[in-house]
Design a protein that fits this description.
The chain is an alpha+beta fold. The protein has two helices and two strands; from the N terminus they run E-E-H-H. Strands 1-2 form a two-stranded antiparallel sheet. Helix 1 packs across helix 2.
C-alpha cells in the first residue's frame, strides 16, 4: 500500500507516494533540507544550484557508503573463511587421524 505524504523541501510542498511510512518519508525530507541548508550556508547561490550541489554531495556520500559496505562485506567473508579454517584445525587437533599403516 502506498502512503501519500506531504513534505516541505527547500520551502516547497511536495506530496509523495511512498511504500515507506510517513515517519520515514519525513526523515528523508528533513535530511535533504539539512543537507541543502549546509550547502547554502555562507553562500549566495540560487536554489537550483543549491539543489544540484546537494544532490552531488548526497551521491558522493552514497557512493562512499557503498564502498564502505563492500569493504565490510569482504571483511566478514574473510573472517568467516578464517573461522571455518580454525574450526577445521581444532576438529583435527581433537580427533587426530590414526594411520593404520604406521607400525608401533
Amino acid at each position: 500500500m502506498q502512503n501519500r505524504v506531504t513534505v516541505t523541501v527547500a520551502g516547497h510542498n511536495y506530496t509523495l507516494l511512498a511504500e515507506e511510512g510517513e515517519d520515514y518519508v519525513r526523515r528523508v525530507a528533513d535530511f535533504v533540507n539539512e543537507q541543502m541548508r549546509q550547502t547554502q550556508e555562507g553562500t549566495e547561490i540560487s536554489q537550483l544550484d543549491c539543489a544540484l550541489l546537494t544532490c552531488l554531495n548526497i551521491a558522493d556520500q552514497y557512493f562512499k557508503e557503498q564502498e564502505a559496505a563492500e569493504h565490510l562485506r569482504q571483511q566478514i567473508k574473510d573472517l568467516l573463511e578464517e573461522n571455518a579454517q580454525l574450526k577445521l584445525e581444532l576438529h583435527q587437533a581433537k580427533h587426530p587421524r590414526q594411520d593404520k599403516n604406521v607400525k608401533k
